[in-house]
From TrEMBL:
Residues 15-107 form the PilZ domain. InterPro entries: PilZ_domain. This is PilZ domain-containing protein. Pfam families: PilZ (PF07238). GO terms for molecular function: cyclic-di-GMP binding.
Amino acid sequence: MHLLPDSGPVPAPEQRRIPRHQLTAYLAVYNSLTGRPFGYIGNLSSHGIMLLCAMPVMLNEEYHLELHLPELSAKDYPRCIRFKARSRWCRADVTPGHYDCGFSISHNREAFAGLTTALQRYFTFGDFAGA
């Protein structure tokens, strides 16, 4: 008799009223000197940014970064914002092999002034907020 491996329980059908959005896939940050991926935005303000990184960062160092944005609005924001940020803290994320890293924006802070509002508008889930 040949036994088939147990594939585990059958996943439940999707019951979401709105689709799940993997925001980190849209909010990539790159090292602007090398072009290599640096991390993904976990949180941001006009003064700072928290990145989810695959490697820990050295503290109190200045990094040359660029933020690749979805097309928010051609007249409001460029697709790529270059900036400098100084690392302030770094800790292991709850996901093994990932790190939460906090930075203060040290150059081109004005580009972040209205970015939070623009991103909220872009990723709005419409009328589902009250559902």
